């Protein structure tokens, strides 16, 4: 039985192994990783999927400042064991993360990812069009969603910068 829950205190070891298997070492070169490096995920906004006791999926949200629009979240990385690809585990994790973020009062979420995949959740390139990521990033993969009724990202300008708590 597949279950979704907040990341547990001891999930980080299996989480890192999963990310290594699914994404490989190239994940450390991504622009999003620059914003995550040496930071903790946003409080209460890291999720995992388990099949029985096996960790099969992960997603985290990170505190960032989105230029002149202020506080936002950055989603990623989203990773699911390859044998569960297409099973809905990734979507379940994204929905869990977005619902929890909205419930916690966050106003927007940004990511760098496949536009076709993330469109189903409401992500679009337009709200992120005036924002920049540190380092190289693919503009057409840089997307955002406004949570709730506030259109906080339209017209936003500037560079994303990490604001989350530092890891010890």
Rg from Cα: 15 Å
Q: For the report, how would you describe the main beta sheet?
A: 9 strands, mixed
Number of strands: 9
The CATH topology comes to Aminopeptidase
Q: Overall 3D geometry?
A: globular
Number of domains: 1
Mean pLDDT: 95
Roughly how much helix do the residues carry, as a percent range?
10-25%
How far from one another are the termini? 34 Å
Low-confidence stretches: none
Number of DSSP helices? 4
CATH class value? Alpha Beta
Query: Structural class, from secondary structure content?
Result: alpha+beta
Q: How much β-strand is present in the residues?
A: 25-35%
The CATH architecture is 3-Layer(aba) Sandwich
- CATH superfamily annotation: Gcn5-related N-acetyltransferase (GNAT)
Write the element-wise H/E pattern from the N-terminal end onward. Answer: EHHEEEEHEHEEE
Keyword list:
acyltransferase activity, transferring groups other than amino-acyl groups; Acetyltransferase; 168 residues; transferase; nine-stranded mixed beta sheet; Aminopeptidase; Acyl_CoA_acyltransferase; GNAT_dom
List the helices and strands and how they pair.
Elements: E1 2-6, H1 12-23, H2 31-36, E2 46-51, E3 54-66, E4 71-75, E5 79-80, H3 89-103, E6 108-112, H4 115-118, E7 131-132, E8 142-146, E9 158-162
Parallel strand pairs: 4-6, 7-9
Antiparallel strand pairs: 1-2, 2-3, 3-4, 3-5, 3-9, 6-8
Overview of the molecule:
By secondary structure, the chain is of the alpha+beta class. It has a single domain, classed as Aminopeptidase, CATH 3.40.630.30. It is 22% helix and 29% strand. The protein has helices at residues 12-23, 31-36, 89-103, 115-118, and strands at residues 2-6, 46-51, 54-66, 71-75, 79-80, 108-112, 131-132, 142-146, 158-162. The longest helix has 15 residues, at 89-103. The protein starts with a strand and ends in a 6-residue tail after the last strand.
């Amino acid at each position: 039985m597949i279950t979704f829950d907040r990341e547990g205190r001891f999930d980080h070891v299996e989480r890192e192994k999963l990310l290594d298997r699914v994404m490989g070492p190239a994940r450390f070169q991504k622009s999003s990783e620059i914003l995550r490096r040496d930071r903790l995920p946003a409080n209460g906004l890291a999720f995992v999927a388990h099949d029985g006791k096996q960790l099969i999926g992960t997603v985290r949200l990170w505190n960032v400042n989105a230029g002149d629009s202020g506080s936002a979240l950055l989603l990623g990385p989203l990773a699911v064991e390859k044998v569960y690809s297409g099973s809905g585990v990734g979507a379940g994790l994204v929905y869990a993360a977005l619902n929890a973020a909205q419930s916690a009062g966050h106003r927007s979420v940004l990511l760098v990812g496949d536009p076709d995949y993330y469109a189903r959740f409401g992500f679009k390139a337009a709200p992120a069009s005036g924002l920049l990521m540190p380092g190289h990033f693919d503009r057409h993969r840089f997307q955002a969603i406004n949570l709730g009724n506030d259109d906080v990202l339209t017209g936003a300008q500037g560079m994303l910068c990490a604001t989350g708590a530092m890891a010890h």
